[in-house]
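[Q] Does anyone have a clean structure-token version of this?
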Amino acid sequence: MTQTNSRFPVWAALLGSGLAGMLVAVQSRVNGGLSREIDNGFLAALVSFGSGLLIIGAVLLCTPSARRGLAQVTRTVRAGELPVWGLLGGTCGGFFVLSQGLVAPALGLALFTVGIVAGQVSGGLVMDRIGLGPGGRVDPTAARVIGTVLAVVAVAFTVWADLRPGSPVWLVLVPIVAGLGMAWQSAVNGLVRSAARSAITATFINFVTGTAMLGIAAAISIAVRGWPTHWPSEPWFYIGGLIGTLFIAVAAVLVRTAGVLLLSMSNVAGQLIASVALEAGLPLANGVTPGLIAGAAVSLIAVAIAASGGGTGRAKRVEG
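[A] Here you go.
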């Protein structure tokens, strides 16, 4: 596959990704709050992802190029140019949204986001190294490796600093895994976007697969626990799907410009800043502690170091 030049400068791609990351922190707060209100994280995740599917589905119906993109993706898959597993990025998005509802209320938004950071930057390093994204292979530089290690250290330090008797420390592994999945999701959604020549098409496919997975999980949960007896009336509890569509579309468009790692780095910088602010003003768990502030600061330093590792760092993909 020959790499084409992006119409976005790198600084604009990183700024856009950072703003999208702030929206992800808001989504985590919204979905975590809805989960707590209805006492069912599986159903809260389905509401978020399912509403996102309705939104992007309506946009797709109104966009001829996006509808043509579906046919183009089908032809590309049948020709063997795009593997079927490349269409499953939405499963990782679904797991991330599910973790927002099940784990973020227990860990608190800031610690949850620090865990996401460690997984996302580590996954971004690996995805770029193996060349999974549409921009080709990106060899790791010393700065990127140091930044990734610092992100992992930030998680360990934050957990240690805020360790309390009986705290569910092991739960931090869930956002780490979710962060790894987000890096993979950005890479494969970028491939789908390239095949479809439409970010709307890539986003729609992402939401189809994620909603299907969450629908099965929510159905099992309802069968075991029953339907929630209370639903909040505040409309902001139900904007998670809208935020998700914006984030996934932005990532699918910008991943070619920045590469998976730098896209992840700028994204998590936005997540960290917004999550600390939200945990201070609208806490999900214990609010902001000195350990959380220090851990978030180390994570931001990790992002800055990794992002300084030499431009976009892209290596051109070699045609086979």
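[Q] Thanks! Anything notable?
[A] The chain is about 75% helix and 0% strand.
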